Sequence to fold (134 residues):
Amino acid sequence: MERVGDARGLVRGYVSALNAVDAAMRAAIPSLERLADILGLVRSHRIMNRSGQVGTYSYTVHGAGCRFVSDNGTEVDVDFAPDGSEIFDFWRLRRYGLSLPEPLDVTDQDLRTAVRSLQSLLSEVRPGWFSIAS
Fold:
């Protein structure tokens, strides 16, 4: 049961870190109405590079999302749904856990159990992909 508790804490930590990234990016780039807008800024060349530094985060835009790395090495990778909502899967959650200052390695099964117990926090938007519940 402790592993599931660790996984639950990891999911909560990821959500908190994603919210912190969103706040920092929108404060640094006032034209961002939502985090997903960074894709449009890069694609329209209003931000010239697919990677850069904003405040305490470096970012790398990829395909349908972006990877953010804080100055302490914690990684938050997120994809964006067509409607601009932030979505993530077990792989992204595990990468976050492994990048923590005190790495936490959890199994997909532990994460599956954890996200089921956090239904008030998360919505499963398609099998294995989650967003923060509205």
Observations:
- The mean pLDDT is 91.
- Residues 87 and 131 are 5 Å apart (CA to CA).
- Helices lie at 2-28, 37-43, 90-99, 108-117.
